[in-house]
Write a structure and sequence with these properties.
The protein is an alpha/beta fold and 175 residues long. Strands 2-3-1-4-5 form a five-stranded parallel β-sheet, sandwiched between helices. The longest helix is centred in the middle third of the chain and has 18 residues. It is globular.
Length: 175
């Protein structure tokens, strides 16, 4: 498998991290426990900064809006969130064992920029039982992009494992 970059998105609580974890576990079964998956969010550095100024790690509507606004400000000021993704991509390409990088990005404009700059494919994860968050710009625009792959996570964890196997088969065939 060649190195591949996927931008992953979806409303909070739909199972993005669970999907990534299952891909990691499945690939590591195949490759004798050598780490093969890297996972990074465009808001990771923002969360570090937010903690320095009092954010307690919450996921309330107020917390989500604060992080979204802080990311927008830092993007406009110095492009830090995107630059931090570029640093992670450099690390990804330097590590010969890593095969897949998942970049979590919410904003459609930033997704489009990353697709073009990193030759990435996009994934949207949905779950019917999860209410779409609209209290902040980042979450509000999750569905305002034309994704390459849409994964409906409406079943059990076993159903999601099967979806992971289908996903891995799909990306193997496209190489």
């Amino acid at each position: 498998m060649d190195k591949q970059i996927f931008i992953i998105n979806g409303s909070g609580g739909v199972g993005k991290d669970t999907f990534v974890q299952l891909v990691y576990m499945r690939l590591n079964e195949i490759s004798d426990c050598i780490p093969t998956v890297m996972n990074f969010s465009s808001v990771d550095k923002i969360k570090e900064i937010a903690k320095l100024i009092g954010w307690k790690g919450g996921k309330t509507e107020k917390d989500r809006k604060f992080l979204s606004d802080l990311k927008l400000l830092s993007s406009k000021y110095c492009d830090m969130p995107f630059q931090s993704m570029k640093e992670q991509i450099d690390k990804f390409y330097q590590d010969k064992n890593l095969k897949i990088l998942f970049l979590h990005i919410r904003e459609p404009e930033e997704i489009d920029r990353a697709v073009k700059e990193f030759n990435a494919k996009t994934i949207l994860i949905t779950r019917n039982s999860i209410k779409h968050i609209t209290s902040n710009t980042a979450d509000k625009n999750v569905f305002n992009y034309n994704y390459d792959i849409i994964i409906e996570n409406n079943g059990t964890i076993e159903d999601l494992r099967k979806t992971v196997d289908d996903f891995l088969s799909l990306i193997e065939k496209k190489q």
